[in-house]
Amino acid sequence: MFKKSILLFFSLLVLLSCTSEEKHIVITPDDYNDAVEKVTEVIIHDIFSPPVASRIYAYSNIAAYEILAQSSTEYTSLAGKLKDLPETPKPDSAAVVNYDLAALIAQMEIAKTLIFSEERITDIRDSLYIKWEDQNPTELAASKAYALKVTNHIKAWMDGDNYKQTRTMPKFSVNPDNPSRWQPTPPAYMDGIEPHWMKIRTFVIDSASQFKPIPPPEFSMEKDSEFYKQLIEVYDVRNAMTEEGDASEKMAIAQFWDCNPYVSTHKGHLMFATKKITPGGHWIGIVKIATKKMEADLMETVYAYTKTSIALFDGFISCWDEKYRSNLIRPETLINQYIDDGWAPVLQTPPFPEYSSGHSVVSGAAAEVLTEIYGDDFSFDDDTETPYGLPVRSFKSFRSASSEAALSRLYGGIHYRAAIDEGLKQGREVGRYIVGKLDLKANTAQASN
User: Fold this and answer.
1) 3-class secondary structure, 281
2) Are the beta carbons of 264 and 273 closer than 8 angstroms?
3) Residues 6+ positions from 291 with CB-CB distance below 8 Å
4) What pairs with residue 273 in β-bridges?
5) CB-based contacts of 384: which residues, under 8 Å, 6+ apart?
6) Which H, E and C letters describe 337-395, residue by residue?
7) Confidence check: pLDDT of 94 > 50
8) Is 55 in contact with 163 (CB distance < 8 Å)?
9) Do 238 and 413 meet the contact criterion of CB atoms below 8 Å apart?
């Protein structure tokens, strides 16, 4: 009996000694920023379309947010607030879960399922697992188990959004006999991208058509028509752009907000893609800038990413619903056919119909959400495009940035004025609706009940 007691005593000492060496795993906002940046890198590498990229950002951020919300007294769950999202499962009662760690794991796991180059996320994740295993294997095991539990929950909900079904739907049919209808544009003459995106389940807005904009000006090549005047404006603005003065600034604005992942470059008989960030990716980069400036903690950081990505996601659905309804021809096509066959826009025309402007819509939506979080006088220096060789631009507010992003489409020669103005209005309506419907702060939600 005495020997057994001694043995038990020394076993407890060993256990306590091992436990005391385990360190709590700390996840910082920078860790999360790095994980989101890795997703952006893979989106660029895999050349995902802007709508599909918005889906990757949204679901991966939602998974992280839902885990953090389970332990937060300040923020509430998205369950019941996003369409068809059921209550998020709780961790096992006996498990000692590090919610911050579980959130980061869930973000990586969901992102990994939505991309092509899975190994690019897997390699980062596995290297982190090795580090965390050395710090605290018990905490890692419990947190990983809970993260995977929530990941499976989000995957099951995600699978009901009609995305998989749209992968098997027919390609967009071009109508060459109707002069107002969109046609593929040079240099790659790609098919229309995501013609069925309006069938994807929305998160917050009631339907894809809830914020349907007014129709574009009636197509007419009569010189006194509103449509023709807007076409000539695109032509004249491009022709007046040089490397000096105000025109140089317009060129800088066009290039800064290009955000076209489909840019094709020709060299001899070879054609290759110049990989770029998407419009949604640019605004996800602005979220990082804003949260870092405010020194936001992890919960606030993930909240800002999540709410902005929800606005981007619903914004693209709203915009694509109109694009393939109005099915309007791009300026480049008409100018080359009727005015100047050697004319080319500053930016390469993206492969989908013209009206309304996608960048205008999603910039308006994202700006409204970020304005709700940080206010209308939030100035920031936008360095999102510096990895692509472009200088920093400064803005006095999110809304002013969204206005410049919208106007860049005119300077770039890829949109008429109506698509820009009405697109920005459409996006801001989407954003304001999401702000009004998606109150995730526990104190304000309780006060309104």
Assistant:
1) helix
2) yes
3) 29, 33, 300, 301, 304, 305
4) 264
5) 277, 282, 285, 286, 289
6) HHHCCCCCCCCCCCCCCCCCCHHHHHHHHHHHHHHHHHCCCCCEEECCCHHHCCCCEEE
7) yes
8) yes
9) yes
Structure tokens at 73: 């007294």
Task: Give CA–CA dist 225/69, Å, rounded.
Answer: 54
pLDDT at site 247:
73
From the list 239, 264, 301, 112, the residue with the least C-alpha distance to 188 is 264
HSE-CB for 94 with a 13 A CA cutoff:
1
Q: How many CB atoms lie within 10 A of CB 374?
A: 18
Contacts 24+ apart (CB under 8 A), 167-172: 169/195, 169/196, 169/199, 171/195, 172/324
Contact criterion met (CB below 8 Å) for 415 and 409: yes
Asked if residue 20 has pLDDT above 80, the reply is no
pTM of the model: 0.93
Helices 417-437 and 226-240 cross at an angle (nearest 10°) of 100
Q: Which residues contact 316 (CB under 8 A, 6 or more apart)?
A: 50, 51, 54, 197, 280, 358, 361, 362
Average model confidence (pLDDT) across the chain:
92
Q: Which amino acid appears at position 46 of this protein?
A: D
Match 């989000």 to its residue by tokens.
154
CA dihedral 53, 57, 60, 65 (to 10 degrees): -160
pLDDT recorded at residue 263: 85
Residues 6+ apart with CB under 8 A from 152: none
Q: Which among 373, 158, 348, 339 has a CA at the least distance from the CA of 261? A: 348
> Confidence band (pLDDT; 50, 70, 90) for 268?
low
3-state secondary structure of 181: strand
Bridge partners (DSSP) listed for residue 270 = 267
Whose tokens are 């119909």? That residue is 353
pLDDT score recorded for residue 22: 82
∠ Cα 367 207 442 (to 5°): 55
pLDDT score of 180 more than 70? yes
> How far apart are alpha carbons 103 and 303 in whole angstroms?
12
Closest CA to 15 of 140, 142, 138: 138
**Minimal CA–CA distance to 422: which of 213, 261, 281?**
213
